[in-house]
Amino acid sequence: MLVRGQDEAACRAVFGDHDHPSYAEALEQYYERGAPPDWSTNFISAYATMHPWEDFAETFAFYLNVVTVQDTAQNFGLGGSGYTANLDDMLRWFGEIGLVMNEINRDMGLTDLTPEVITSAIRDKLNHIHRLVQEGSQDSRPCRWRCRGSAVVDWITTGGRASAAGSGQLSFRTKTSG
Fold first, then answer.
1. Global pTM?
2. Residue 107: domain span
């Protein structure tokens, strides 16, 4: 929907050739060899090394986490600007809230909420996805994605205008699924 038949050349440039090896071949290789030891330099997760489509999916899932965590934190009065056209601002604020949440989790003996480290290669991938989302906000087709947990992220666009606020920006809202 976001890439196939629309922006495949740009996606290949960022994520790699999704046709070679095939998904089935890549899956078999991944389970035989696992992720390379230095995977965190170029990938958001070890599984993202399996195939370019998984790299795209894992990176997109992380992007949705960035957006929804900011939205939740902002709605609970913890600051932040929420979704903006500036990816670096979003990542900077996500890093700040992530640092606080990681420290709280560590105080409680839990693992980090946001263990990801955003390298320049991962930032480039996030920027590609951010660009696709921004371009999609100008599309008149409504889309809905399910993200982790019971949250649903609604991407509502109508003729290039997002949400009832009429901001012209993409609007992400979280709600409990039913």
1. 0.74
2. 19-28+47-139
